[in-house]
Design a protein that fits this description.
about 525 residues, mainly alpha, PG_synth_SpoVB, cell membrane, membrane, transmembrane
């Protein structure tokens, strides 16, 4: 089995994550062009149910499997690795059967009584077949990660997206003549086939690399696996807490939005189309910069953990300041580009320039999200994962309450849902920050943050000038490319001028430090 070092494995997963995000945007662009706002809305209403089913099926087991397999492999205990796989497959297998049956039963009820658009039944029903596939793939993914071989996980993510993109246009176009609800179901079927292709790849890698026979004595090993099950669940259940809160919150989001808009007097078809614009176009775009802060968070956990174990609290404070400054810098350029160039970006990507109004309203508040990953990483490193989970729970309740309070008012409508989402982001970020301050003695370096803010404002001014006077001189694609490139160049020049970036800072970002 080919192992990678921590940096190599992290770099591989980050590159795969970036490729997957880019392919995911291509997938959304294809759906938007074929199905329109209403079709995307139906699809996006089903997606939270899909993610909740995935969370419940996985139950945090990939991380638990990875940890236990790594420990067993370190001691050369192949029989324990085999037992871990058998018990994990049994747990996820049973869960997948229960959840699949539950989805078939619940889909008509959810469509009719919760989403207020009974056409969602078809994409909801299309989710069910993917659950058993995800059950097996999650076990294999945890197994490979435990053996420190990140290639199967990384490659399988890319394969899944490539297959999905290859089929989404075909399937949505094939079913569209029968109605947008069938086109949305076709898009969900492309997800199923993509996940199946990913599983087949990982299974083939497992067959080639494995040194054990799983089927031999399966039930005998299962009967003797009580201790292994206990070990798995002791790790998996606490891990899945925050994920489950996020998934449940996301599951209820379209339900609350749909019912709130109905109370506001907005018709079902219009509400579905508006939710498609918000959840299918705008939010994925605003989440894109978290790729950088996620990378930063990966290196931050061991760095803070090491300093905390050595009781070097001044070092914790120093590294936290570095992380927050880098988060502000990376989030700053993203915020400037998305705010100033919102209209051409949404027009070129989704043929939906009206969606730019959501982008402009949400971008300043989404700036808080770019601090959230590093702050949560610090809490995990300081053994405050439970506090982070409570903060997430509070944020979820705030989000659903705010959406209902604002979206039911006709003067807000779907914009009320957008505001509810950003209010939640601000609340969770501030709670994380307050928890960190309470845990450690932390002093904000005011000079750095003032200079960061000044850099963002200067770049924003330059971007506005480019947008108004340079972009009209070119075609939309050329103009956007030239102006965004020039904006980034202005930002880099200002950062160098203010001496806000150093080699030491860049070394904390895994996919950059390899090249420094």
């Amino acid at each position: 089995m080919t192992k990678q070092t921590l940096v190599q494995g992290t770099l591989l997963l980050i590159i795969a994550g970036l490729v997957t995000k880019i392919l995911g945007f291509v997938n959304r662009i294809v759906m938007a062009r074929v199905m329109g706002h209403e079709g995307v809305g139906l699809y996006m209403m089903a997606v939270p149910t899909f993610l909740l089913a995935v969370t419940l099926t996985r139950l945090g087991l990939p991380i638990a499997i990875s940890k236990l397999v790594a420990e067993a492999d370190a001691t050369g205990d192949r029989s324990k690795v085999r037992k871990i796989l058998i018990v994990s497959l049994a747990i996820t297998g049973i869960l997948s059967i229960v959840i699949t049956i539950a989805l078939f039963i619940a889909a008509p009820l959810l469509a009719e009584y919760f989403f207020t658009d009974d056409r969602t039944i078809w994409p909801l029903l299309a989710i069910a077949p993917v659950v058993p596939v995800i059950a097996v793939s999650s076990v294999l993914r945890g197994y490979f990660q435990g053996l420190q071989n990140m290639r199967p996980s990384a490659y399988s993510q890319v394969i899944e997206q490539v297959v999905r993109i290859a089929l989404v246009a075909l399937l949505t176009g094939l079913f569209l003549p029968y109605g947008v609800e069938y086109a949305a179901a076709g898009a969900m079927i492309s997800v199923i086939i993509g996940e199946l292709a990913s599983l087949l790849y990982m299974f083939s890698m497992f067959k080639v690399k494995k040194k054990m026979r799983i089927r031999k004595g399966f039930f005998k090993q299962l009967k003797q696996g009580h201790e292994t099950m206990k070990d798995l669940l002791n790790i998996a259940l606490p891990t899945t807490g925050s994920q489950l809160i996020g998934s449940v919150s996301y599951f209820f989001e379209p339900i609350v939005v749909a019912n709130s808009l109905a109370i506001a007097g907005i018709t079902t078809a219009v509400a579905t189309a508006q939710y498609g614009e918000l959840a299918g176009y705008v939010i994925p775009l605003l989440f894109l910069p978290t790729f950088i802060t996620y990378s930063l968070s990966i290196s931050l956990v061991p760095a803070i953990s090491e300093a905390n174990a050595q009781k070097k609290y001044h070092l914790i404070e120093h590294r936290l300041n570095q992380a927050l400054r880098l988060s502000m810098l990376s989030g700053g350029i993203a915020a400037v580009i998305m705010y100033v160039y919102a209209v051409p970006i949404m027009d070129l990507m989704y043929d939906s320039p009206t969606s730019a109004s959501y982008v402009k309203i949400m971008t300043p508040f989404f700036f808080f999200l770019y601090f959230q990953g590093p702050l949560q990483a610090v809490l995990q490193a300081l053994n405050l994962a439970r506090s982070a989970m409570i903060n997430s729970l509070i944020g979820a309740l705030v989000k659903l309450t705010a959406i209902f309070a604002l979206a039911t008012r006709p003067e807000f409508g779907i914009m009320g849902a957008a505001l509810g989402i950003v209010i939640s982001i601000v609340v969770v970020t501030l709670l994380h920050f307050a928890t960190v301050i309470k845990a450690i003695s932390y002093t904000i370096v005011v000079k750095d943050f003032v200079l960061c803010l000044l850099s963002i404002l200067i770049t924003g001014g330059g971007a506005v000038y480019l947008y108004q006077y340079m972009m009209p001189q070119f075609s939309p694609v050329q103009g956007l490319t030239i102006c965004v490139s020039a904006t980034c160049a202005i930002y880099l020049f200002v950062l160098i001028f203010f001496k806000l970036l150093s080699k030491e800072d860049l070394k904390h970002i895994p996919f950059i430090k390899r090249w420094i």
